[in-house]
Each structure stands twice: as structure tokens, then as C-alpha cells.
């Protein structure tokens, strides 16, 4: 084995240029896998550093995750409160010096000038009890902490933003009903400034304003001197059981800030899904590059076989070479993932996917995993690529070393045809399964189709060249004739150039088009589903629950529907053995079914929303029903944002889930189980004959004394529904741009390798009288054909998935796919430019050598 590695090392050193392509592919692939690993690790371990809890030894909260057998635990999507009775149990644990209850609730703070006060990242203020200052610990910079029911303290930044000074009357509201409090003190954080404006009340007032006096947000624990905080956290969990969770160190930030937990879940989901796609693409690219490298060494392997080298010996030599190159490339490449993940994080922060102060976990585990995966991928790809080269008989190998064969093996052909047929069938799934499920299947078919084209590439290219070849021979002159001859006789080489281009174009365009189609459909559903004349929304924490009754009593109002939004999680049984449990989170809305059709049209397909009466009933979108394997009249296991478990019966199934949410519950049920008991909007329908603009004027005057109440038209709600999907589309676009960059680098790498390997061919052409200009024209014609075939094949591959997605989302109303013209043009233009440069520049470089010198250079 030592001799094999020594021989392989000498081969790599002496002809390192031949391994440069494989090195680049593995280097970039390891960087991509490492970056995905860092995103996943950051979702698991990183977060936002605590502020108000910075001085607490341990923070105790209710269990925030739903345990699922054989699956990762799932977040409930909101904050699960802790029973106030647990405070005494926590205080009784040995080692606890003090247990401090914390009541946290969102509120709206108005400045003296009338504007609202927000945090640096647009966060709304939160109210707390004065005793929680011990957890920071927070210092009183001026005045004193509140002692009376009408007293309040603000943090220094919030007081400055609102224009308040000690003794001023502060106007704030839990919801939209304002109240005035006297500013008695200004507090400062342990360091820096608060990311969420802090408003302090007396503990009794905070308990009352939270709306849930028998429930705590968290309990902060101060340890006795000499007690280790991790040991104390373990003791608390052992005493209180699985119903609570504890946090120490920076993990306390995940319990303090809800958006930290949300960002963690998002990063894990994104890294998991995108990392899987990236791994498949990386394997695909590495296999193609190594296959091209091994193919270019056919003469060498033929000679080795002719001088009695056995297939096993050649295999071992190739394996040792690949192992050396893989290690040399993947280690620095994986380390580059450090830099790449920071760029992705910066882009996510820029579009608002994660908070600016969300950190990254940079433990080196993803580097090790990326290196191992890269080496295993390279070894497997090298073994598969080398099988034919080492198995054929020596005489056949020498005869075949200079002439390509377009034939494909029967197994490869069969697999390619099966995948091609399977991909096309997946594209047609939305015809039978509408909604998001069909959309996902159709969108996923693009990768299956690309793999099928990769397997059948030489055949497809040979068929395309059969049509193009005669045209080039008749009208292309000498350069066209030579190009046609080269292309026709080297279909495998052309396929090796076409397939990576097809991969880059298809994945980018299909995925971006799916996002565009979803945003368009969500906007359509929201626009057509809101049949109200006016929409009342909040620019602060939310709308008071009693506001809808006041609006409904206003002269000229026919009806008003309050809409409450929150998360919901459904646990269901997977298909198969019927024992595997899975969970899926959905956006939920709460409404009152009475006269709902006057303000909101969910496009009910089965059942009746009139049956939506109590906690025992629920309505689902078609997509949610399909994904959770349920239907009308069936009972579902549903968990609300505060962890409450319900088992409602499905009373209706509707279509417009993308525009309004996939789960619809009675308003009171959802409202009672949110961390903030506030409405998101109120839909208003005017009486017949009442002008909507006149009614808007009346309501505006009526709301003059409220805080954060905004009156808008019906399009506001549609735009709000599109905003979330648009954010997801931007996030996917960033990740796709990274993936496209990786594929583009390796496309250029493959094209350069393929072109540079033809130096002996170019030398021979020049020796028989062909000039440099004619060779360059020949290569220009070839590059145009390669790029043209790639564009045509890509268009044919993109069309079925995009049509399937459109049919699924529009329920067959249209087959014209929604796509992004800008992204499509940039992708196609980038591929054209990349292909021309990657072929023509190496051609010019190779032609600088004298023909006699070039033809004598060894392969």
C-alpha cells in the first residue's frame, strides 16, 4: 500500500495540471458543504446574547418544544408560559439564592410627538415587573423604580426616542387602548443598549397587564455563592421534571428573545434542506469532473494494461491519487466555509431573515464533516468513473484510447430512461394533487430530470448534433466542417460540457420561478379573498380585542371581523406502517364564523365554516389536509403556540390557505393561547349604500385617541400576506446564487479542462495547414453549439416543472408559468458568457505553442 501511495504521489506531482480540475471541484464543494454545516450548527447552538437575563445564573421556562418520537423536537412557534405555582418549587431547590418571576408582554409606546417608539431593529417594546432588574442586573441611571400603580420606568434609549424626562406622563398601551403613567426612573443595561425597549411596572401591575396573572414568562434564578450554574440547572430539571427547560450562559438569550428561537429553527430548516441539495449537486459535479479527468487519461491506462498491470492495481493507483487530491483540496476548502457562512449570514441579515445580532457557532465540527464527505464522494465517484477504464482488455483499451464511443451501457440507459419518465410523471402530479404538495413534487422533479439528462447525455447530444451537423457542414465553411466533425465524433466530451451548463440553468430558473409563482398566487388569493371594504391594522403591538365590537357598533358598518394570527402545529401519522409520528408547523388564523362571508372568502371546498364554533372544531386548507393525511370529519392532534393540545374535528376544507394561513380556528380559542392576547387586523364591511371613503373618515376620527391603529384599504392585507413569501423567495435566491456560483466555477473548470486537453489535436490541425484563425473559428462554432444545445435542453427541462407548479397553484386555470424575466435573462446571459470565455480563452492560450512542440507534449 505504501508503494501504491508513493507511486500515486509521484504521479500527482509530475502532472499536477491534470488534477487541477478535480482539485477545484473538491475545494469548492468542501467550502459549500462546510458553510451549510456552520449554518446548521449555528441554528442548534448559537443565538442572541442575553441582556435582561445576563446576570441570572439559570433561567427556567416551560418546555418550549414538542417531543416527537423518531423525529427532531419541534418548536411550538410562540412562547410557552410557566405555571406561576412552580416558582415556589424552583425557590426550594438547594443552591437557589433567589428565584425572580418575570412577566413579559408586548406593548405599544407612543412618544411625546405622537410617533411610536421601536427598537433599533424595529422591535416593539416589552413590559416587565420591577423585580426583574435583579436578573440583569439593570442599574437605575436616574430617578427610581416604579412603586405605585401609575408609575413606570423606561430604558435610556426608549426615553430619549420618546422625548421623555423624569416626571413626564408616558402614553402607552397593551393593545390599542392607551393609558398614561408617570415616568419615575430610567434604567441602563449591563452593557451597550437594549435591543428591545424595556418598560418597567410594579410587579402587581405587570402581572395584571400580562393578561395571564397565573402564568409566568420565565423565572430567573440567582445561585448561592459557590454553586455551579450548570449543576444548579440540572438540579432544577431533576426536581421539576420534563415540563421545564433551563438555560445558562448565552443560551439564556433564546428564552429572553422570541426571534432568537425563530431564527434558530429557520437556520436549521434552511441548512437541512439546502444542504441536502448542495450535497447532491456537489456529488454530481465532483463525479463529472473526475470522470472527465479519468477519461482524458485513457491512453495512459491502456498502456498500463498493455504492460500487464491488473485492473485491481490500476484501481488502487487511481484510488490513491484521488485520496491525495481529495485531502489536499477538501481541507483548505472546508476551512473556506468559515468565510462563506459569514457572507451568507450578512445577506440573511440584510433581507431581514435573521436578526443582526444573531451570532454564529464556529466549532470546527462542520469542517471535519465536510472533509469526510468530500473524500468519500471523490472516492466513490472515482471508482465509478474508473470501472470501464480498468475492466476492458488491453488491446481494446489501446484501440479505444484515441477514439470515443458514443454507446452507453444498458444499465445506465435504463436508469436514465426510468428517471426521465419518473421526472415527467412528477411534473404531472399537480394535475391530480393540487396545492402545495403537488407544487413541491413538481418543483423537485427538475433535479431528477437533470440527473436523467446526465445519464443520457451522450445520446441526447448525439441526437442534437445529428440535426446541427449537416447545417454546419453546408454553411460553416472549413471551420464549420471541422467543428461538425469534432462534435459528432466526440459526443461524450460535448455531453460533459453540456450537462453542467444544464444543471446550472435548470436549478436556478426552476427554483426562482417556483418562488415567483407562490408569491403571485398568495397575492391573488389574498386580493380576491378579502371582500371587506376596509382593513384596520396596528403599527404597534396589536389591536385590543374589544376594538372589533366598537367598530361593529359604528354607524355605517354592516359587519366587522377580527382576525387573530399565530402558530399551530399538527402531529400526524406518516403513511406506511402507521406508527411513525411527524409534526408540521402552520400559520393559523382565528376568526368568528358569524357573517364571515361578508368580509373574508376562504374558498371553501368541503364542509362549512359555520361549524367553526369552539375548541373542538378546526378548518384546514387543502394543502394542510394533504400534508397531514387528514380530511373532512377527521380528528386532528393540534398544538397551539403556548403548547396547549387540542383534538378538534375538521369541519371545513378551503383553498385559500396560501393567502390567509393553513389552519383556521375560532378566534377566542387562538386568542386565549397567544403570548399576546391581541388581534392582528379587523376587516370592515360597509352597509349597502354607504361610501367606503366616508366610512374611513368616520373611523379615523373615532380612532384618534387610540395608539397605533391604522386604517388601510383591502390591498394592505394582500401585501402583508405576500411579504412573508417574498422574504422566503429572497432567502432562496441568496442560497441559489451561492449554489449557482459553485456550479458556474466548476462548469468553467470542466470546459477549461476539456479544451486544454485538445492541444495535440490543435497541433495536428496546424501541422496539416489549418491556421490559428481557422482553429479559433472552429472552437467558436463548437462553443456556440455547446451553449445553444445547453440552453435548448435547459428550456425543455424547465418547462414541465414550471407548468406543473403553475397548474397546481392555479388549479388548472392557467398553464402559463410564472417566472422572473430578470433572473432568467441574467442566468442565460451568465451561462453564455461563461461558456464562451471558458472555451475561447484556453484555446488562445493553447495556440500560443508551436505545433511541433505541442504535439510532442505528453498527455
TrEMBL record:
Localization (cell): Cell membrane
TM region positions: 19-40, 266-292, 322-343, 363-383, 414-433, 439-457, 494-514, 730-752, 780-803, 815-841
Name of the protein in its database record: ABC transporter permease
Domain of life: Bacteria
Keywords on record: Cell membrane, Membrane, Transmembrane, Transmembrane helix
Pfam families, alphabetized: FtsX
Source organism per UniProt: Kribbella lupini
Keyword Transit peptide found: no
Keyword ATP-binding: no
Principal subcellular localization: membrane
PANTHER family in the record: ABC TRANSPORTER PERMEASE YTRF, MEMBRANE COMPONENT OF TRANSPORTER-RELATED
Family listed: Belongs to the ABC-4 integral membrane protein family.
Its membrane topology: Multi-pass membrane protein
InterPro entries reported for this sequence: ABC3_permease_C, Macrolide_Exporter_MacB
Domain ABC3 transporter permease C-terminal: 273-393, 734-850
Secretion signal span: none
Amino acid at each position: 500500500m505504501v508503494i501504491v501511495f508513493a507511486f500515486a504521489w509521484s504521479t500527482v506531482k509530475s502532472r499536477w495540471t491534470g488534477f487541477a480540475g478535480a482539485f477545484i471541484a473538491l475545494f469548492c464543494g468542501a467550502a459549500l458543504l462546510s458553510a451549510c454545516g456552520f449554518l446548521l450548527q449555528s441554528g442548534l447552538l448559537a443565538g442572541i446574547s442575553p441582556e435582561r437575563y445576563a446576570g441570572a445564573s439559570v433561567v427556567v421556562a416551560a418546555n418550549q418544544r414538542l417531543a416527537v418520537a423518531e423525529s427532531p423536537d419541534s418548536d411550538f412557534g410562540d412562547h410557552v408560559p410557566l405555571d406561576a405555582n412552580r416558582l415556589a418549587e424552583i425557590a426550594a431547590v438547594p443552591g437557589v439564592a433567589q428565584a425572580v418571576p418575570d412577566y413579559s408582554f408586548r406593548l405599544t409606546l407612543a412618544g411625546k410627538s405622537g410617533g411610536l417608539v421601536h427598537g433599533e431593529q424595529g422591535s416593539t417594546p416589552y413590559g416587565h415587573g420591577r423585580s426583574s432588574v435583579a436578573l440583569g442586573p439593570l442599574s437605575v441611571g436616574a430617578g427610581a423604580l416604579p412603586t405605585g400603580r401609575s408609575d413606570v420606568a423606561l430604558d435610556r434609549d426608549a426615553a430619549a426616542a420618546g422625548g421623555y424626562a423624569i416626571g413626564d406622563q408616558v402614553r402607552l398601551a397593551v393593545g390599542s387602548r392607551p393609558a398614561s403613567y408617570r415616568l419615575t426612573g430610567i434604567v441602563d443595561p449591563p452593557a451597550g443598549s437594549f435591543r428591545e425597549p424595556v418598560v418597567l411596572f410594579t410587579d402587581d401591575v405587570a402581572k395584571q397587564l400580562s393578561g395571564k396573572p397565573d402564568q409566568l414568562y420565565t423565572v430567573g434564578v440567582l445561585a448561592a455563592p459557590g454553586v455551579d450554574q450548570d449543576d444548579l440547572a440540572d438540579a432544577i430539571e431533576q426536581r421539576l421534571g420534563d415540563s421545564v427547560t433551563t438555560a445558562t450562559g448565552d443560551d439564556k438569550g433564546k428564552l429572553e428573545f422570541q426571534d432568537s428561537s425563530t431564527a434558530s429553527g429557520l437556520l436549521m430548516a434552511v441548512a437541512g434542506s439546502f444542504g441536502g441539495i448542495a450535497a447532491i449537486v456537489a456529488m454530481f459535479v465532483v463525479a463529472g469532473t473526475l470522470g472527465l479527468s479519468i477519461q482524458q487519461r485513457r491512453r495512459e491506462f491502456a498502456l498500463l494494461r498493455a504492460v500487464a498491470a491488473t485492473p485491481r492495481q490500476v484501481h488502487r493507483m487511481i484510488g490513491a491519487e484521488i485520496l491525495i487530491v481529495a485531502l489536499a483540496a477538501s481541507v483548505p476548502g472546508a476551512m473556506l466555509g468559515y468565510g462563506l457562512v459569514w457572507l451568507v449570514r450578512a445577506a440573511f441579515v440584510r433581507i431581514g431573515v435573521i436578526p443582526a445580532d444573531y451570532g454564529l457557532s464556529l466549532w470546527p465540527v462542520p469542517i471535519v464533516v465536510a472533509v469526510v464527505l468530500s473524500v468519500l464522494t471523490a472516492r466513490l465517484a472515482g471508482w465509478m468513473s474508473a470501472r470501464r477504464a480498468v475492466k476492458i482488455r488491453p488491446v481494446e483499451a489501446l484501440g479505444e484510447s484515441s477514439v470515443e464511443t458514443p454507446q452507453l451501457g444498458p444499465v445506465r440507459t435504463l436508469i436514465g430512461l426510468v428517471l426521465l419518465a419518473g421526472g415527467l410523471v412528477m411534473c404531472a402530479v399537480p394535475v391530480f394533487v393540487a396545492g402545495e404538495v403537488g407544487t413541491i413534487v413538481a418543483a423537485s422533479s427538475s433535479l431528477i430530470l437533470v440527473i436523467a439528462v446526465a445519464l443520457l447525455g451522450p445520446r441526447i447530444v448525439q441526437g442534437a448534433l445529428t440535426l446541427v451537423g449537416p447545417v454546419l457542414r453546408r454553411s460553416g465553411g472549413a471551420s464549420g466542417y471541422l467543428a461538425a466533425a469534432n462534435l459528432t465524433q466526440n459526443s461524450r466530451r460535448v455531453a460533459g460540457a453540456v450537462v453542467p451548463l444544464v444543471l446550472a440553468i435548470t436549478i436556478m430558473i426552476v427554483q426562482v420561478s417556483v418562488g415567483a409563482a407562490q408569491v403571485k398566487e398568495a397575492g391573488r388569493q389574498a386580493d380576491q379573498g378579502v371582500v371587506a371594504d376596509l382593513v384596520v391594522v396596528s403599527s404597534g403591538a396589536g389591536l385590543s380585542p374589544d376594538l372589533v365590537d366598537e367598530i361593529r357598533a359604528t354607524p355605517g358598518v354592516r359587519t366587522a371581523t377580527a382576525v387573530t394570527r399565530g402558530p399551530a402545529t399538527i402531529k400526524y401519522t406518516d403513511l406506511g406502517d402507521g406508527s411513525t409520528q411527524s409534526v408540521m408547523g402552520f400559520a393559523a388564523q382565528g376568526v368568528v364564523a358569524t357573517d364571515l362571508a361578508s368580509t373574508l372568502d376562504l374558498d371553501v371546498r368541503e364542509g362549512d365554516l359555520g361549524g367553526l364554533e369552539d375548541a373542538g372544531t378546526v378548518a384546514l386548507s387543502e394543502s394542510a389536509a394533504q400534508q397531514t393525511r387528514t380530511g373532512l370529519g377527521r380528528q386532528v392532534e393540534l398544538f397551539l403556540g403556548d403548547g396547549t393540545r387540542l383534538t378538534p374535528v375538521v369541519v371545513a376544507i378551503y383553498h385559500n390557505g396560501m393567502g390567509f394561513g393553513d389552519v383556521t380556528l375560532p378566534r377566542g380559542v387562538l386568542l386565549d393561547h397567544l403570548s399576546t392576547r391581541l388581534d392582528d387586523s379587523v376587516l370592515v364591511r360597509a352597509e349597502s349604500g354607504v361610501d367606503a371613503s366616508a366610512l374611513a373618515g368616520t373611523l379615523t376620527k373615532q380612532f384618534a385617541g387610540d395608539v397605533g391603529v391604522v386604517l388601510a384599504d383591502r390591498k394592505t392585507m394582500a401585501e402583508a400576506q405576500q411579504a412573508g413569501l417574498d422574504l422566503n423567495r429572497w432567502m432562496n435566491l441568496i442560497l441559489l446564487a451561492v449554489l449557482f456560483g459553485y456550479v458556474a466555477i466548476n462548469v468553467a473548470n470542466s470546459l477549461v479542462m476539456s479544451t486544454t486537453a485538445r492541444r495535440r489535436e490543435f497541433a495536428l490541425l496546424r501541422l496539416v495547414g489549418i491556421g490559428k484563425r481557422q482553429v479559433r473559428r472552429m472552437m467558436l462554432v463548437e462553443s456556440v453549439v455547446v451553449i445553444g444545445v445547453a440552453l435548448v435542453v435547459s428550456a425543455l427541462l424547465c418547462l414541465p416543472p414550471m407548468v406543473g407548479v403553475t397548474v397546481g397553484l392555479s388549479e388548472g386555470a392557467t398553464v402559463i408559468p410564472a417566472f422572473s424575466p430578470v433572473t432568467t435573462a441574467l442566468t442565460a446571459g451568465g451561462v453564455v458568457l461563461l461558456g464562451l470565455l471558458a472555451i475561447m480563452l484556453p484555446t488562445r492560450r493553447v495556440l500560443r505553442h508551436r505545433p511541433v512542440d505541442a504535439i510532442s507534449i505528453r498527455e
